[in-house]
Amino acid sequence: MGVGPSAARGPSRARCSALLAVGFADRARARGRALRAVPVRANGQPALACYLPTPPAPIARPYGLLVLSADRDAITAITWFGDTSIFPAFGLPRSLPDERPGKRRTGRTSAPS
Question: What share of the chain is helix, strand, coil (3-state, %, to 5)?
Fold first, then answer.
């Protein structure tokens, strides 16, 4: 259990990441692909904007927002918001580039003339 000012704010980003890794891994196995998460804050609480890769497109699209409620060194609640229309209010992009190993981002090219 932490002490000092940081303990009052809840778990660190690293601690939240570690606690969520197990749940994300389980859902990735069930879904067949892993979510990509971008850390944000929602009403002063830690949150993760989740993006789902959408093969064959080389991008990940908004999927939902996880807001974490924390007390000292434990996550006490996780609230899921599936309405991705809220992403712009958090300054989040409409998509993320593909980051799968072996994939390269390429610009659109025209056909040879």
Answer: 25, 35, 40
Distant-in-sequence, close-in-space partners of 47: CB < 8 Å, separation ≥ 6: 39, 40, 41, 65, 66, 67, 68
Report which of 85, 34, 91 is spatially closest to residue 64, judged by C-alpha positions: 85
Residue 55 Cα distances to 26, 72, 107, angstroms:
20, 39, 17
The answer, as to whether pTM is greater than 0.70, is: no
pLDDT in tens, 67-89: 989 887 778 899 999 999 999 99
Q: List pLDDT tens digits, range 12-24.
A: 667 666 667 767 7
CB-CB contact of 63 with 35 (8 Å):
yes
